[in-house]
Design goal:
The protein has 438 residues and is an alpha/beta fold. It has two domains: 268 residues, Rossmann fold (3-Layer(aba) Sandwich); 98 residues, no CATH class. 37% of the residues lie in helices and 12% in strands. An eight-stranded mixed sheet has the order 1-10-2-3-9-8-7-5. Strands 4-6 form a two-stranded antiparallel ribbon. Helix 10 crosses helix 11.
Length: 438
């Protein structure tokens, strides 16, 4: 029945299953992962770094172990929008790694608030205008994405603009702003330094360094370099520039390479916050979009119901059966005591004589049911040289008492002793088990 039920469930799931079509890329809900080959993905950027001799890698662990990891990178790239938010602990660990000399490249129109920060006396902000056209625009159409948008130019020659003449942002590009504070190092949200840095006492002291604008266009700062301790945070306000759809326009690819290039070491792309973390269930990811997961859940539910039904009674509890504490020997002893107290000598004699006759006839080889008393007596007398009349009279007396003739205890004991004597002479004596006689 269970197998049949599971078969029906599998059949119903297969018949009612409608395969989900792959969600098309859109700027409203982009997928910036390096695994995504669609218009909003960054697989082309990752492949370009590989082909130009760089060392890109996909970081699929939490950033909490970034500073102590054996595969510690030189550059860490976060491309938004993110599908998993940064926790306060993860952001603090990432910023601590930056303060130790790392380079964090944040490419987003509206990056996480925790990452809009600096250790110098400047307030940083990255923002963009809300656009209702994001839903209707095809991100793979370069004309739609860049219409009425002028190319951005390098503000000054820097390492990040080397070989870059112009960069084409999208019409939805964000911009970076910064303003000087009262000499206190603050985060982008106006709060103090990250708690992790504050506790360890390893906060780099505020310096005279200031943010550096590398690229600007349409009165927007697109690329800004912010000092953070011994490291730096580089903001790019438009992920379209490094996306699969936009990286091949003018010098977009050159800018992308310059932002992450170092003298050596690896370049880590944050895939953990794109939903590809190591704590994701690979089994469910493998069967995602198929009816297999629903079948597993339904089968588990059926098994659970079977266990519940087998381990529970759906009626009043029955009283526990009392164990039989009387052995056979106790039964015999109790019956003997009962017969003695009730003076049931006829019943006692009946038990003794019936057993005597059965054992004697078996020993003599005659039929117990058809043989007469006289025949049994003659057979006994012939075997042990005893008077036939005496045996016949003994058997007759026993039969009379067994049938109800009055008798006393002494008489019954005497008759039983004479029967046992005949048994002994016939070799039918009762010997205790486990004992031998010499």
């Amino acid at each position: 029945m269970v197998v049949g039920l599971v078969g029906v469930l599998v059949l119903l799931n297969a018949l009612t299953y409608v395969q989900n079509q792959k969600e098309p890329d859109s700027e409203l809900r982009p997928n910036r992962s390096t695994y995504n080959a669609g218009a909003t993905g960054s697989q082309a950027f990752f492949t370009l770094l590989n082909e130009t001799g760089r060392k890109p890698m996909r970081w699929q662990d939490s950033t909490e172990g970034l500073a102590t990891s054996r595969s510690r990178p030189n550059v860490f790239v976060v491309i938004g929008s993110l599908r998993r938010e940064f926790t306060e602990s993860e952001a603090n660990s990432l910023l601590y790694w930056v303060s130790e000399g790392g380079r964090l490249v944040v490419i987003d129109r509206d990056p996480p608030q925790e990452l809009k920060t600096s250790t110098v006396s400047w307030k940083i902000d990255v923002s963009s205008d809300p656009a209702v056209e994001l839903l209707s625009i095809d991100p793979s159409d370069q004309k739609q994405m860049t219409t009425n948008t002028n190319a951005a130019k390098p503000v000054q020659p820097t390492l990040f603009t080397s070989g870059v003449n112009a960069v084409q942002p999208s019409r939805f590009s964000g911009w970076i702003t910064f303003e000087r504070t009262n000499g206190i190092a603050v985060r982008g949200d106006g709060t103090g330094l990250p708690p992790l840095v504050r506790v360890t006492g390893d906060v780099p002291q505020p310096s005279a360094k200031a943010p550096v604008v590398h690229l600007a266009g349409n009165e927007k700062n697109l690329v800004v370099d912010i000092p953070y301790g011994s490291g730096q945070i580089v903001y790019l306000a438009d992920p379209y520039i490094v996306s699969n759809a936009g990286i091949n326009i003018v010098d977009n690819s050159q800018l992308a390479i310059d932002l992450v290039s170092t003298s050596g070491g690896t370049i880590a792309f944050d895939e953990y916050h794109q939903g590809y973390g190591t704590n994701a269930n690979r089994l469910f990811q493998f069967f995602e979009g198929t009816p297999v997961i629903a079948i597993f859940v339904q089968c588990a539910l059926i098994v659970g119901l079977i266990f519940v039904s087998q381990s529970r009674r759906f009626a009043r509890p029955l009283p526990e059966r009392e164990p039989d504490r009387l052995s056979k020997l106790e039964y015999v002893t109790a019956m003997a005591e009962l017969q003695q107290r009730t003076k049931a000598y006829d019943l006692a004699m009946e038990n003794i004589f019936v057993d005597f006759r059965r054992r004697v006839t078996r020993s003599l080889g005659i039929d117990n049911l058809t043989s007469t008393r006289k025949e049994v007596a003659e057979s006994i007398a012939a075997r042990i040289a005893i008077d036939t009349y005496a045996v016949s009279e003994l058997m007759m007396k026993c039969e009379a008492i067994a049938q109800g003739e009055p008798a006393n205890k002494a008489e019954v004991i005497e008759l039983a002793a004479r029967l046992r004597e005949i048994e002994d002479k016939l070799g039918l004596s009762r010997k205790p088990r486990g004992k031998t006689t010499r």
